[in-house]
Write a structure and sequence with these properties.
six-stranded antiparallel barrel, five-stranded parallel beta sheet
Length: 488
């Protein structure tokens, strides 16, 4: 079970009565928040910290606890910040600094100095905030009464992001084949990915999956076909092609379980031993939360798995998507996003159809795939790129829309969306930032969720939204590059 340590700061000058009350209040608050984070993490009350030794001890314990995904810090009273220096330098888990009070309202008729000394978060949290800033500690600050819904929502977002980051720290990613030849933006430093995020990315030969395919039983293949029949509409007479995809998915599921894989890539340049490029196989696995990146794009595959984890329990869809082509009607510009095959059915506006069509690339048999029109709604597109000396996240607000007209001759799943603040600005900003043609699209997450992920992993982030101005945006990128150069 994921845990979040609830750590309360005080000092040893107040006396036993005040400290007992601080502990009682903190325990009650931790229990309340634990109920609100049910399904994400248990909020665990820790003894009130009154000395530097106690502060260091609890931060070291949190950092060493594999079940701990983060900490909530709160100063109930004044807590001299020099006593937190060693503790904060030892802390290796994401931190939420909760600026709140046990009491919502002031007891105007009875307030006295005893009340003031006990309930002085306004004082203590500023002291604690200073030392965090002085030490350069990355943290999320949430201010407001802890029982208010907006504050709870922000704490839940922190917990979900922390859970996703923690998930990524032990994640394994399989590259079935390698990066597509001569392609730059999908490549990346796999060693640095593991150093920064914990993503253990390794090459596997496609033969590792082919050997599993060859040993599948009819019962295993038929079970997968039954799953397809239940979920999707069969719109092809080519049962053999669909059966071939069922083999691929059944084998990939075994491979994923055997190697403890959370995300994978493939490439149509390395399909030795396969008759088709995986279509339904990859699509159906994505819908189950397995990250996927085509053409060897391990960064998108890993990011997809992490963001899918972050979106658990929320309404909306999250998955891989690729920029493909545009409708450039003046004033009504739209992007058509799709891929050769691999678009997750979580984006389907209605029940997907299983169809079989020639691929026209890769020199293989026509693959079975899911075909559907996409959902509508507000969303984000997130791209991760390797800048050589650091990773960058490019996050754009988008509006997914219903396609204006049918596309009867386009045999792939697709989404359509509007760029913000407008097409010219949004597209140019993405290109200036170096954003890839692959992204993770989500209608469940927002740019604030990506901001949390970037903060927790110390990843560079640029945002494109309805406030983006190209001149300011270019200046921002130049400043980021200058600062990154100073850190080399």
């Amino acid at each position: 079970m994921n845990k979040i340590y609830f750590i309360t700061g005080s000092q040893d000058l107040y006396g036993e009565e005040t400290l007992r009350q601080a502990a009682s209040d903190s325990k009650e608050m931790a229990a309340f928040l634990s109920g609100k984070l049910c399904g994400i993490a248990e909020v665990c009350f820790e003894p009130v910290v009154t000395t530097s030794a106690e502060a260091e001890k609890v931060c070291v314990e949190a950092s060493a606890d594999s079940d701990c995904i983060g900490v909530i810090m709160w100063m109930h009273t004044f807590s001299p910040a020099k006593m937190w220096i060693r503790a904060l330098k030892a802390l290796k888990k994401p931190m939420l600094h909760l600026h709140t009070q046990y009491n919502e309202k002031l007891p105007y008729d009875s307030i006295d100095m005893d009340f003031m000394n006990l309930n002085q978060s306004a004082h203590g949290d500023r002291e604690f905030g200073f030392i965090c800033t002085r030490l350069g500690v990355k943290r999320e600050v949430v201010a407001g009464y802890y029982k208010h819904e907006d504050v709870i929502a922000r704490i839940r977002s922190f917990a979900q992001a922390a859970a996703a980051v923690n998930f990524g720290r032990t994640m394994k990613v399989a590259m079935l084949g390698n990066n597509m030849r001569d392609v730059a933006v999908t490549d990346g430093d796999r060693v640095e990915s593991e150093i920064r995020y914990g993503w253990n990315v390794n090459y596997y030969g496609i033969g590792d999956v082919v050997s599993i395919i060859e040993k599948l039983t009819d019962d295993e293949i038929n079970a997968k076909l039954a799953e397809y029949s239940e979920k999707y509409t069969m719109a092809t007479d080519d049962a053999a092609a669909v059966r071939e995809q069922a083999k691929y998915e059944a084998a990939l599921e075994k491979f994923i379980k055997q190697e403890n894989i959370s995300a994978f890539t493939d490439t149509f340049q390395d399909l030795h031993g396969l008759k088709q490029l995986p279509g339904i196989a990859a699509q159906n696995l994505m819908a189950k939360g397995i990250g996927f990146g085509p053409e060897g794009d391990y960064k998108t595959a890993a990011l997809g798995a992490v963001l899918f984890k972050m979106a658990e329990g929320r309404e909306g869809a999250t998955g891989f998507m690729e920029d493909y082509t545009y409708d450039l009607t003046s004033g009504s510009e739209l992007e058509l996003a799709a891929h050769m095959l691999e678009v997750s059915p979580v984006f389907a506006a209605s029940k997907p159809e299983i169809q079989v069509h020639p691929l026209g690339i890769g020199g293989k048999e026509p693959p079975a795939r899911l075909v559907f029109d996409g959902i509508s709604g507000e969303g984000i597109a997130v791209s991760m790129i390797d800048m050589g000396n650091r990773f960058r996240l490019v996050c754009a607000d988008i509006t997914l829309v219903k396609q204006p007209q049918p596309m009867p001759k386009l045999p792939v799943a697709r989404l359509m969306w509007k760029l913000k603040p407008d097409f010219a600005t949004g597209a140019a900003a993405w290109i200036y930032a170096g954003g890839a043609h692959h992204a993770v699209v989500s209608t469940a997450l927002t740019k604030d969720d990506i901001r949390l992920f970037a903060k927790m992993t110390d990843t560079e982030l640029v945002i494109i939204d309805d406030k983006t101005d190209l001149n300011t945006f270019e200046q921002q990128l130049e400043m980021i590059d200058v600062l990154a150069g100073l850190k080399k």
